[in-house]
Amino acid sequence: MMAPVRCFSCGTLVGDKWEEFARRVQGGETPKAVLDDLGIKRYCCRRMILSNVEIIDEVLKYFEAK
Q: What is the mean pLDDT for each group of 10 consecutive residues in the chain (66 residues)?
């Protein structure tokens, strides 16, 4: 999990909601409904969740252990 812990704009805790959001959206729910249900109302916080992309698996391909 590499979701941001807090919203960059307002500082609200959003990292604890990422796993449930991702699970429910993959289950077929709309992102809007999930965000509303999780209580994420500010557009800056919604942006933090919606724009998060998990790229750690792609980055680890290029990591060189020493």
A: 85 92 95 96 94 82 76
Number of domains in the chain: 1
The type of residue at 28 is: G
Cα 47 to Cα 64: distance, rounded to the nearest angstrom: 33
pTM: 0.78
Neighbours of 48 (CB within 10 A): 24
CB 44 within 8 A of CB 9: yes
Residues spanned by the domain of 34: 1-66
State the pLDDT at residue 53: 82
- CATH number of the domain where residue 9 is located: 1.10.10.60
